[in-house]
Amino acid sequence: MTITAPRPQAPRPQGGTLVDQFELGLDAPICLTWELTYACNLACAHCLSSSGTRDPRELTTEQCEAVIDELQRMQVFYVNIGGGEPTIRPDFWHLLQYAVDHQVGVKFSTNGVRLNPERARFLASTDYVDVQISLDGATAEVNDYVRGPGSYDTAILALKNLQEAGFKDAKISVVCTRENISQLDEFKAIADHYGATLRLTRLRPSGRGADVWDELHPLPEQQRELYDWLMANGEDVLTGDSFFHLAAFGEALPGLNLCGAGRVVCLIDPIGDVYACPFAIHDNFLAGNLLADGGFAEVWQTSELFQDLRAPQTSGACTKCEFFDSCRGGCMAAKFFTGLPMDGPDPECVQGYGESALAADRSIPAASQDHSRATPGRNQPVMLTLGKRPTDFTPPTSAPVSACAENPLAGFTP
Amino acid sequence: MSVTAPAPVLETAPDALPEAGVGVRLEDGWRLNPRVALRPEPFGALAYHFGNRRLSFLRRPELVTVVRALAAAPDVRTALRESGVPEEQFTAYVGALSTLAESDMIHPRKEGQR
Lengths: 414, 114
What we know:
heterodimer; A: alpha/beta; nine-stranded mixed β-sheet; B: alpha+beta; Outer Surface Protein A, domain 3; two-stranded antiparallel sheet
């Protein structure tokens, strides 16, 4: 279950910077992600959790309430709820209210499918709920290419409903891809129009994202474009600390620039499995199950995997790089799912070490689970574009010959 | 002794800015804001403000003791003494408490208020 050999535990050092302390782990996460369901009305091409169909072992309402009770006892003040599409769980609104009533604030991510005017008014009346609408293109064309037909309109309608209900400061969450890096200003304009805050995150090669990462991850010059844009606009834009690999361009971006996996963040999945981070739903990053292993606190505090992530990490050749202090070797999940070694560079290393690592011999790990629908749904994106006829194309001179043609000279051209 | 830091991992709303110009004096009574929860951590404590969703980090266990002692003590000086803080460090602690006051984590206490 560990990704590297266990290291001896030393007594915890005092002092140092906050980041030094965070690297050693906390008694409870600062913020955790909780995927409530693997069921989803969409089938986004890059879904981190390969969502689609509900897992029959999904936690029941009572079990979810028990998790919230435990989070309250551990003083986890905030959870990010996602999925799947969390709002299609019939008890979603109940659980939302239950969490808020137990001093566990909620930010939930949604594609907007259930945010009708009535729900929007309910949300506007709560004091302790944040809503995050996913949008991966500033135009329907770009968004629907990865998120599926109609998903742009759904998201925009949800934003409109929230605004009209008087909900303040919704978040628009954008996964930055090769297709949308050129639209950053347009995303900002949409956010401003709906009184929302823009949140940009990194495309991870996790879940179904592994299948489309090669095609969608930003090109090296786009990484630079993104970095420059964040340096110019970063004050008003959230990033969830997800671009710390870009820090190697020079100046560090606002934020902790720290991999929080198993140290200050983690993920609870719909069946109660606890993973190191939201981008690492794979057996190699599974710390335990909160039903089977004595509760969430027990898993967080004692799992072998998390103990290991809180021990000093070896970063191999990267430690010799002059930018190591700013990027810390990049994202563990991005390396793992592209088949790169944990102690090497991030696949998107902006100093170019990622490209050479990707070009070398590597094997991409098999997914350990997949909740995608067996047959495509009507909203499934089809990532094909119309191409132009190749320039060397020669049209056929005669009709194709059918298999049952009996003429002995069929297909013969003298 | 920095006590607070913005919390990018929590992504607090940009409008949750601290009130400026709140000064903590040794002779005044203070208390923890009732809307703030302290969570003990190996390095000290994490303070969460339920109103503005701001997170602060108390970087020393001694500071946590002082903050918890504020409500029961008549003034800041007594809270510091009872928490075993040496006199020469009072200024540094008053600075740290002022930072907490600026982010609305602690409140001045009115006459007779606990």
